[in-house]
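Sample entry as discussed:
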Amino acid sequence: MSSVKPLPPYLISEEEYLASEQVSDIRHEYIGGQAYAMAGAGYNHNCIAANIMRKFGNHLEGTPCATFVADMKVRLGKDYVYPDVLVDCGKLSGDDYFANSPVIIVEVLSPSTRKTDTTTKLIRYINLPSVQEYVLVEQDFVSVQVLRRSQHWQPEYFYLGDAVTFAPIGLTLAVEEIYDRVDNKDMNEFRMLQSGLTTDIPAV
């Protein structure tokens, strides 16, 4: 991801956006006729996305489903966005630049994206007929929220010690697997407990 500070959104046609995005050094999302430059992500964000991508990808080897991270667009009508991780089980060709039939979409939340990921994108994603699960993962603390079509999009929350089942691909992951190598207070305390260490001062 680029570390360049994103520029303000600018008006551009859908055709111009699709043509320019193929040669741009900076990724842009296209919403409501405006292109939005995307900022680079930090360590925790990248760890979470990479963990999920790796687990999904390994599980789906030899199947029609493919896992993509960060650089594959999803088309939402005339809008185009870049989920952090997605699984698409449709047939994609070598010339495709966006997914048409994602079944799982994952967004890693940050202060700059939280509002869009939990409002605008949420509504647009769950209205895609192919999407079966929308997953929101916090990076500053441990919390995984899953919204499932089968549960009428009612949110379910998972924390350390829980396991998350991604039903469309038949995979279950422990929450701590999703947060492997992540550096936040919850995970640091969890690792200390797993190592048999505590921060308590022994009584004398």
Residues 43-59 form the longest helix (17 residues). The chain has six helices and 14 strands. Helices lie at 14-21, 43-59, 114-118, 120-126, 175-178, 185-194.
